Amino acid sequence: MHDDEVLQSFEKLLTDLEVELRYEKGDFRGGICRFKEKKQFILNKNLNANQKIMIMANELKSNFDLDNLYLVPALREVIGNADSLGQ
Q1: Domain boundaries in the chain?
Q2: For labelling alongside 8, which of 14, 30, 73, 84 has CA 20 to 30 A away?
Q3: What is the pTM of this model?
């Protein structure tokens, strides 16, 4: 899968997990937070696709149990290979 396809798959996964995704400008990389009891994923829109993918993979791996959720093998591989050094 190309980076754009992986990124779109992550965006769909967040929707399936009922996490609002927001692309914002600022001096930050991104991550999951709670606002009024709703999970949000805020991501710096100025990052390149690979950086966005690594941040999403790390956050999903750290904050969600994805074992019982179907993911395309390429996406599961990206998440499985994610570590905090990738950020």
Answers
A1: 3-80
A2: 84
A3: 0.86
